[in-house]
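[step 3/7] inverse_fold.run input=structure_tokens len=160
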């Protein structure tokens, strides 16, 4: 039987919902995911899957989930897989880290993302805490939390 059961309840399944053509295959290295990994492996995959779903939801909310952005997201998740193997206790930090990784990669390639919905001068929201659980998108200019990572609402579309 495939190891599909994700023990914990309450984690949404918003990934792939309404997305076209992003079924998790990235075509890069073919890392096996459901192949009976040793102890800990499945928990790590659930953490990474959750982080991926949150950031993908935010990309989608701002209409930024194009193929390029999604592949940047896949790369960020892959590199955090290694990080999480080294430090399993950091699981709660992974969503905030992946969000920042994607933000940084988008900035290099395309521009600032996600743009602040509160300020007239376009600037990117920041993730706070940078290394901690329960990350939020924050307007640093106003010192206001705009939304939790994964729940970014509609707003200025970008990257810009
Ligand atoms: Zn702002």
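[step 3/7] decode complete -> sequence:
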């Amino acid at each position: 039987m495939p190891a599909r059961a994700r023990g914990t309840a309450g984690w949404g399944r918003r990934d792939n919902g309404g997305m076209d053509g992003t079924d998790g295959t990235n075509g890069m290295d073919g890392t096996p995911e459901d192949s009976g990994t040793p102890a800990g492996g499945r928990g790590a995959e659930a953490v990474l899957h959750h982080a991926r779903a949150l950031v993908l939801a935010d990309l989608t909310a701002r209409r930024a989930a194009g193929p390029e952005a999604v592949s940047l997201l896949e790369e960020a998740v892959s590199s955090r897989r290694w990080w999480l193997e080294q430090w399993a206790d950091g699981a709660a930090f992974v969503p905030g880290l992946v969000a920042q990784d994607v933000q940084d990669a988008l900035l290099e390639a395309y521009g600032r993302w996600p743009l602040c919905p509160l300020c007239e001068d376009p600037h990117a929201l920041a993730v706070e805490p940078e290394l901690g659980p329960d990350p939020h998108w924050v307007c640093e200019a106003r010192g206001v939390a705009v939304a939790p990572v994964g729940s970014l609402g509609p707003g200025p579309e970008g990257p810009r």
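[step 4/7] annotate
Residues 41-61 form the longest helix (21 residues).
The two ends are 45 Å apart (CA to CA).
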